[in-house]
């Protein structure tokens, strides 16, 4: 694989006396949308936090061939943007004020707000469909609109790589589609790399180009979205039987779960 987004070599994470990630070696492709999936507690969000330099770990994580722990914080923030799960901000903060904060990694405390900063903020608002909502308070927005405002904030960092931790949590299906359509359209139009944690298998195979399936802190499977999530992988990772169909509109796989595997209870 050429030009990887990240290269992981023997990465391990231990929290509270328990191993969360076990000796992971993995290459994540650049210029694609990669979905990290897995059951609750599998380590998928820990993996994303590791890529964001928010997690102590063993082993090495390389970006453009350099260990990420050695990259200056400002330079890393200009290159990699993170949207954590369920971010919060005051309800009366306007959309423009929130989005403008994404310029912080590019400005020192003494820098004046510039015409270039203004242009980048306006472009981010337009790219996320919020151009006419800049003066609205966050508390007046729908869940999908708020999430798009947070995505606009990450865009004003002008990153080449975007990390999203379960960006569709707490959203209904219409808003989930809205957010993921926005993210994937931005990835294609800007040539960005997007790595996101998703808990919905259907959304993962519909919107991602690449899949990483995590099971008990290990990589259970990874590869193209069209072929990686086989019924056997889904059975191993999620404990359910399923059928794989083809979406007649998109041509993408459609996962149809039809029963959970039976468990044997102790007498």
Gap between N and C termini: 51 Å
Number of DSSP strand runs: 12
Q: What is the CATH-assigned architecture?
A: 3-Layer(aba) Sandwich
Mean pLDDT: 91
Structural class: alpha/beta
Could you spell the SSE succession in H and E letters?
EEEHEEHEHHHEHEHEEHEE
CATH homolog superfamily: P-loop containing nucleotide triphosphate hydrolases
Rg over alpha carbons: 19 Å
Topology record:
Blueprint: E1 4-15, E2 18-29, E3 33-37, H1 44-51, E4 58-63, E5 66-67, H2 73-79, E6 80-83, H3 95-100, H4 115-127, H5 143-156, E7 161-165, H6 173-190, E8 193-197, H7 201-207, E9 210-215, E10 218-224, H8 231-238, E11 240-246, E12 253-260
Parallel strand pairs: 3-8, 3-9, 6-7, 7-8
Antiparallel strand pairs: 1-2, 1-4, 4-5, 9-10, 11-12
Quick rundown:
This protein has one domain (4-260): Rossmann fold. The chain is an alpha/beta fold. α4 (115-127) runs antiparallel to α5 (143-156) and α5 packs parallel to α6 (173-190).
What does this molecule look like?
The protein has about 270 residues and is of the alpha/beta class. The chain has a single domain (about 5-260), classed as Rossmann fold (3-Layer(aba) Sandwich), CATH 3.40.50.300. Helix content is about 30%, strand content about 30%. The chain has helices at about 45-50, 75-80, 95-100, 115-125, 145-155, 175-190, 200-205, 230-240, and strands at about 5-15, 20-30, 35, 60-65, 65, 80-85, 160-165, 195, 210-215, 220-225, 240-245, 255-260. The strands form three sheets. A six-stranded mixed beta sheet has the order 6-7-8-3-9-10, with helices on both faces. Strands 2-1-4-5 form a four-stranded antiparallel beta sheet, with helices on one face. Helix 4 runs antiparallel to helix 5.
């Amino acid at each position: 694989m050429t030009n990887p987004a990240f290269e992981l070599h023997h990465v391990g994470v231990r929290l509270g006396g328990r191993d969360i990630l076990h000796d992971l070696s993995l290459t994540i492709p650049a210029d694609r949308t990669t979905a990290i999936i897995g059951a609750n507690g599998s380590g998928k969000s820990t993996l994303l936090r590791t890529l964001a330099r928010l997690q102590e770990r063993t082993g090495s994580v390389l970006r453009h061939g350099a260990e990420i722990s050695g990259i200056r914080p400002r330079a890393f923030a200009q290159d990699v943007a993170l949207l954590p799960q369920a971010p919060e901000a005051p309800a009366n903060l306007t959309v423009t004020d929130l989005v403008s904060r994404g310029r912080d990694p590019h400005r020192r405390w003494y820098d004046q707000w510039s015409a270039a900063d203004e242009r980048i903020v306006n472009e981010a608002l337009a790219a996320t469909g919020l151009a006419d909502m800049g003066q609205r308070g966050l508390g007046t927005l729908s869940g999908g609109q708020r999430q798009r405002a947070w995505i606009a904030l990450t865009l004003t960092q002008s990153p080449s790589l975007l990390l999203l931790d379960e960006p569709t949590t707490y959203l209904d299906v219409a808003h989930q589609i809205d957010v993921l359509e926005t993210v994937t359209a931005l990835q294609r139009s800007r040539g960005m790399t997007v790595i996101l944690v998703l808990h919905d298998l259907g959304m993962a195979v519909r919107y991602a180009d690449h899949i990483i399936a995590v099971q008990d802190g290990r990589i259970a499977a990874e590869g193209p979205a069209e072929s990686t999530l086989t019924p056997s992988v889904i059975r191993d990772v999620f404990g359910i039987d399923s059928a794989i169909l083809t979406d007649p509109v998109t041509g993408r796989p459609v996962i149809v779960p039809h029963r959970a595997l039976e468990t044997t209870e102790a007498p």
